[in-house]
Task: structure prediction
Amino acid sequence: MSDARDTLFRYLTLLQLIPRSPGRISTPVLKEKLAERGFHIDTRSLQRDLGQKLSTQFPIGCDDSQKPYRWYFDRAFQCHLPALDVPSALTLVLAEEYLKGLLPPVVVGQLTPHFNDARQLLDGMASNGLSKWARCVRAIPNGKALIPAELDEATWQTVAEALLEQKAIDVMYLSRNSETEKPLTLHPQGIVSRHSATYLLAHVDGFEDLRQFALHRVKHAAFSQRAWQARDDFDIDRYIQSGAFGYRQGPDNVVLEAEIARPVAWLLQETPLSEQQTIDALPDSQWYRLTAQVPDDQQTLWWLMGMSTNVKVLAPSAWRETLKANAAQVLAHYQDTPNTCDTH
Amino acid sequence: MSDARDTLFRYLTLLQLIPRSPGRISTPVLKEKLAERGFHIDTRSLQRDLGQKLSTQFPIGCDDSQKPYRWYFDRAFQCHLPALDVPSALTLVLAEEYLKGLLPPVVVGQLTPHFNDARQLLDGMASNGLSKWARCVRAIPNGKALIPAELDEATWQTVAEALLEQKAIDVMYLSRNSETEKPLTLHPQGIVSRHSATYLLAHVDGFEDLRQFALHRVKHAAFSQRAWQARDDFDIDRYIQSGAFGYRQGPDNVVLEAEIARPVAWLLQETPLSEQQTIDALPDSQWYRLTAQVPDDQQTLWWLMGMSTNVKVLAPSAWRETLKANAAQVLAHYQDTPNTCDTH
DNA sequence: ATTTAATGCGGCGTTAGTTGTCGCAGCACT
DNA sequence: AGTGCTGCGACAACTAACGCCGCATTAAAT
Result:
């Protein structure tokens, strides 16, 4: 890439260097970055490129309130280089529907231009007038969709950058217990997005232990002066499996054996519980016998609970007992008169 | 866009017209499409653009086995015009983790270049050598992740295009009951992606009733000669809510009243069940009183079941009864000796 | 207040690249 | 063999890009 002397390519590089609207970049910085990439051009040329060529053809703005002008892309603009094809666009639309229930609005918002691009493509396809695609595509999430916790756009940007560029941050944090915001200096080690809430794993400056910080309770994040402190021993998977998010998990898989009703059998035949899974019809009934290797985790147990009467767990016995005890306790809750305990 | 005579812009348009690798486009077609967009150039120029300019700077291939050469983009290439920023890249990584458990691999595969682009950006950031971002970002899905049903890439492409461009398709369909593949002509009306499986809503040629077709049981989809038949009365939301996917739903919201344990209270304070929700502490206990307007659907009921002993539903009474009956039935399943019915 | 350095911008001549045209060659089809 | 399509090399005319210069404006420094 030393002397890639091609105007087209230089323009492309230039366009890639201009950030989307909250961001800005000044002309001298652009010149420098271009030089880094092998484009040694006169400042005047760069000015002409920006002011006359690019800004007429692209939604590029210029902040000329201060003298080294600052350039930025329109917030909504997105351009994919091999243009999106129809199946990809449809996938993006589906993805958006799913993600809206899973990630905080601000985080999904980061991808809005992409989704808009997809929608635009689909809109433009409607040869016969009104576009109907929006009325024929739906994503149904798996579980109950809780409303994702709101978080601040600036916070997300700062935290994301801090984590990946290994910087410490100063935040105002509203802890769960107290009502007051406390200033903290954090050393980010990881981010966990657990269905509808997003957590930062970090340790507080001066302390050793790792803690979770709900991002929506973080106010005013900013890069800190303090140097970022690593934790070499940190393993995010181990951390999660240790039960930090209520998902404790045994180290090994277990063999689940159960009798399942026909609708469940059909479901699992199409979308199996695991790679190792067998389903056999039981004689003289609408029931099936399921054997599957599954992880020993909370998720699976919850799924079994949700299946309620459609699944009878035989093994592992621990789960069987848990389900039984749960059912007994739930029943007890709802039982007004303790004596009306019905069995089969 | 009539006489947008700018080389740069023409190149850009050209690049957008070249499809990703499974697709191809021939030189004369390109010339025509360029003309449509206001670029009236000589064939020779186009040939030069492709063969000398673009293909040296971009991963563009040329299939010269037949005479009108056919051009295509490298499968893996992706270029976002305002380049991805760090927060967006992180969002993409999170999105990928979620979507892998929700959409069939082939569908997610449509977006692979995007995700790769994001990963590449993050990889390139690691100033201090090895990139660690992969070890510090996780998405924990809400429910149990079943293994998404596999489906054929060509099938997805055909079905997606047929749906959106309103074409009928000929398929070989392996129905759930029979073991044999049957040829069908379908008129696609919608696509529903329900957690791990994806369904096409269509009516069979010659019939009036709408049916669901699991995409992973569709083999050999191809555009049909037959003209596509619309169904004006089709409303996908109404269709889903009518219970077609096991998610029957009452037309109105209901008011859920329940007593919830403290962890649930915390969870719901951060990621509410609905916009209208109040949580009040109950005196003399670790319990809280929840009131929320929620949809009257299966999802919510399942969620309540999963909460098991941590939630005691007070209203609506129908749910209360359902939960109670369920618990009783589950308990009955697990009860070896009917007499050991324990209550509080 | 004056100086100084940095930035933007118009203009100009040189240079380099782009474009259409022509002719030729290979290929498929008739 | 003929015809039409496509790709490619070459050439000349044209156009655009580039660096340089000078000047105006602005902000910081003296």
Observations:
- Residues 7, 41-42, 44-45, 48, 66-67 of chain B lie near DNA strand C (CB under 10 Å from a C1').
- The first strand of chain B starts at residue 25 and ends at 26.
- Confidence is low (pLDDT under 50) at residues 337-344 of chain B.
- Chain B touches chain A through 129 residues (CB under 8 Å).
